[in-house]
Design goal:
- Keywords: ATP-binding, Ligase, Nucleotide-binding.
- This is acetate--CoA ligase.
- It is an enzyme of class 6 (ligase).
- Belongs to the ATP-dependent AMP-binding enzyme family.
- There is one protein chain.
- The chain has 20 helices and 31 strands.
- By secondary structure, it is of the alpha/beta class.
- β4 and β5 form a beta hairpin.
- The protein starts with about 50 loop residues before the first helix and ends with a helix.
- Bound molecules: 5'-O-[(S)-butoxy(hydroxy)phosphoryl]adenosine.
- 5'-O-[(S)-butoxy(hydroxy)phosphoryl]adenosine binds next to α11, β25 and β26.
Length: about 700
């Protein structure tokens, strides 16, 4: 059995780097994986915020932005020190000469190392909660919780939230969790999930949230990597009409972890009776504890662990070009300052806003813009357990009206899916509280942008199309609503302190109107500091491909007005409904199937998901194609990664198109998947060019 991840001839000259990560270093291939964005061909229309909107906007002109931006890049230390001084620091950072950061992003100058506010001591939980309560905001609502079913809801003030966080943090301490220890969290969107994150942050424990849609195997892989002594979970959850028994998945994962020689001491389980009752939950005495039986007995006050700005705050695993997920590591001070500031400006946050982000805390968006960014600003936040189209396609707008949501942040895939149900489910709700809309996760195609703007926002609410990544911690390229005209499909301009560079295949920055690889040329406070346990991979993946730059993995075009248009990943990462999935991960899941000999996975344009997963599968000799086998291959991916990574299409492949040196030509596979059969290009370098016709013949088999 061998995985088909060998790279394509188009970038064979680069070879594999030491981690096996692959890059498409051929500009002609740019955007091939870029899915739905037809932006480049669209006539660029501009959308200008109303005078009324601009009259209260934090940034109301491009000139105002330009002046602040200039300072942020010419004097980053002064710029960020001014902002950071609005937070509480137990000890101020050391800065005799006014320098608050030190960074080497150039692999030619030694180890890549980034530090912001080093020597400063603070705590992000304290700044998110205690600071507001002490300022008299204790009775302000922190979380409005909306359950899966309409009518099931709850709310928590800042004071109540702080008490709940303190109780859990006291429990964790009592369990022996100390500063620097990892805590794994596998929970659905109950308020207990952000409470768990904040409780860890309070005591200096490193939270590692695993999206509760990952399989037991994926969870165990992450547990084995960060080795927590305690896992927090929930009996189960209802998502739409489905019930998912989360504790069972954790049981399987812990079993597997044990077989690898690692024992997790405690599994603290929140009983979510509306989904799965206690009596229906399998239990391992000694290891499993019901959250409700212990946590409420702890004091509602808890000492804060003061953290160096560069102490680790959390790990979050994300997909790369190789099979092994990367544990992106964020630290405390820079992340705190950066998420708070980006939240404030990109959403034009005002104290009376009600903010709703539909993301799950299992992804970076839920960390930076459902939990930390908004709480650091003292915002009232809607946390939603369910899905956008349950019980019907009007649910989001019902929730908007119920809580008078003024800032709404979601993903293009949700917009496209709701768009399919037409305008009526939107129009039957008022939505007049809405002021700012946000988009994240993938390029938003101009037609979805238009619908979001015209229908959802009644042509009144600017859209912040925020480009960023798990690795960047916070927004990098984003409109500041009211600051400048929007162009549907463009993330527009860089945030303060962000210096994008478009780089060509030779690693040279190119200027003006151009297309190329999107890199960043100077450090920003929110950037990740390393990959858990693998600093070498951090360097080779992000800093070695283009020397002197941080490489994002995305392709990008800059237009004549300096606006940025993201065109999608240029590496072997697929963006499915805003979720990053490495083709190599899916391939390795497929080849683990006993009847699969080889597999190659590519992305293809998908109307709702942005990109779908298209798998070419070669079976072992003598095995017959069948629908049943197809289903069991898909199932292999569900159990190895999770249901969200299930391939949309399995294409039988008697062989894969390989060069004479054995490299799979993914370019050809992408064209076959996209049905662009007249654009296959030169196939004469294939070891066996006849394989292409065989594959085409099997397309609908
Ligand atoms: C990748 C990062 C950042 C939170 C969610 C995803 C794509 C993200 C946009 C956008 C175009 C976008 C990029 C990026 N992406 N936002 N507004 N426009 N592309 O985080 O899982 O780390 O994925 O998502 O390809 O590299 P992630």
């Amino acid at each position: 059995h061998s995985s088909g991840s060998g790279g394509s001839a188009a970038f064979a000259h680069l070879g594999k780097n030491s981690t096996g990560d692959r890059f498409v270093l051929n500009a002609a291939d740019m955007g091939v994986t870029g899915a739905v964005v037809d932006a480049a061909e669209e006539v660029e229309d501009r959308v200008v915020a109303s005078d009324e909107f601009r009259s209260t906007a934090l940034i109301s002109s491009r000139e105002q932005y330009a002046a602040m931006y200039r300072r942020s890049v010419e004097d980053p230390d002064g710029f960020w020190a001014d902002i950071a001084s609005h937070f509480y620091w137990k000890t101020k950072w050391q800065s005799e000469d006014g320098k608050i950061h030190s960074a080497n992003m150039d692999v030619r100058n030694g180890q890549v190392a980034i530090e912001w506010f080093k020597g400063g001591e603070t705590n992000i939980c304290y700044n998110s909660l205690d600071r507001h309560v002490e300022a008299g905001l204790g009775d302000k609502i922190a979380f409005f919780w909306e359950g899966n079913d309409p009518g099931v809801d709850d709310k928590l003030t800042y004071k109540e939230l702080l008490e709940r966080v303190c109780q859990l943090s006291n429990y964790l301490r009592d369990q022996g969790v100390k500063k620097g220890d990892a805590v794994a969290i596998y929970m659905p969107m109950l308020v207990e999930l952000p409470i768990a994150m904040l409780a860890c942050a309070r005591i200096g424990a490193v939270h590692s949230v695993v999206f509760a849609g990952f399989s037991a195997e994926a969870l165990s892989q992450r547990i084995l990597d960060c080795r927590p002594n305690i896992v927090l979970t929930t009996s189960g959850v209802r998502r739409g009409s489905k019930v998912i028994k989360l504790k069972e998945i954790v049981d399987d994962a812990l079993q597997h972890v044990l077989s690898e020689g690692f024992a997790v001491g405690t599994c603290l389980t929140y009983a979510n009776d509306s989904a799965v009752k206690r009596e229906d939950t399998a239990w391992q005495k000694g290891r499993d504890i019901w959250w409700q039986d212990v946590v409420p007995n702890y004091p509602k006050e808890s000492a804060v662990e003061w953290m160096d700005a560069e102490d680790t705050l959390f790990l979050l695993y994300t997909s790369g070009s190789t099979g092994k997920p990367k544990g992106v590591l964020h630290t405390t001070g820079g992340y705190m300052v950066y998420t708070a500031t980006t939240f404030k400006y990109a959403f034009d946050y005002h104290d009376d806003d009600i903010y709703w982000c539909t993301a799950d805390c299992g992804w970076i968006t839920g960390h930076s813009y459902l939990t930390y960014g908004p709480l650091l600003n003292g915002a009232s936040i809607v946390v939603f357990e369910g899905v956008p189209n349950y019980p019907d396609a009007g649910r989001c707008w019902e929730i908007v009206d119920k809580y008078k949501v003024s800032i709404f942040y979601t993903a293009p895939t949700a917009i496209r899916s709701l768009m399919q149900s037409g305008n009526e489910p939107v129009k039957r709700h008022s939505r007049k509280s809405l002021r700012v809309l946000g988009s994240v996760g993938e390029p938003i195609n101009p037609s979805a942008w238009r619908w979001y703007y015209d229908v959802v926002g009644d042509a009144r609410c600017p859209i912040s199309d925020t480009w960023w990544q798990t690795e960047t911690g916070g927004f990098m390229i984003t409109p500041l609503p009211g600051g400048w005209p929007l162009k549907p499909g463009s993330a527009t301009l860089p945030f303060f302190g962000v210096q994008p560079a478009i780089v060509n295949e030779n690693g040279l920055e190119i200027s003006g109107e151009c297309s190329g690889y999107l890199c960043i040329k100077a450090p920003w406070p929110g950037m990740m500091r390393t990959l858990q346990g693998d600093h070498a991979r951090y360097e080779t993946t992000y800093f070695a491909p283009f020397k002197g730059f941080y490489f994002s993995g995305d392709g990008c075009r800059r237009d004549k007005d300096g606006y940025y248009w993201l065109t999608g990943r240029v590496d072997d990462v697929i963006n499915v409904s805003g979720h990053r999935i490495g083709t190599a991960e899916v391939e390795s899941a497929l080849v683990s199937h006993p009847q699969c000999a080889e597999a190659a996975v590519v992305g293809f344009d998908h109307e709702i998901k942005g990109q779908g997963i298209y798998a070419f599968v070669t079976l072992l000799e003598g095995v017959e194609y069948s629908q049943q086998l197809r289903a069991s291959l898909v199932n292999a991916v569900r159990t190895h990664i999770g249901p969200f990574a299930a391939p949309d299409k399995i294409h039988w492949a008697p062989g894969l198109p390989k060069t004479r040196s054995g490299k799979i030509m993914r370019r050809i596979l992408r064209k076959i998947a996209a049905k662009q059969l007249d654009e296959l290009g030169d196939i004469s370098t294939l070891a066996d060019p006849s394989i292409v016709d065989q594959l085409i013949g099997l397309r609908d088999k």
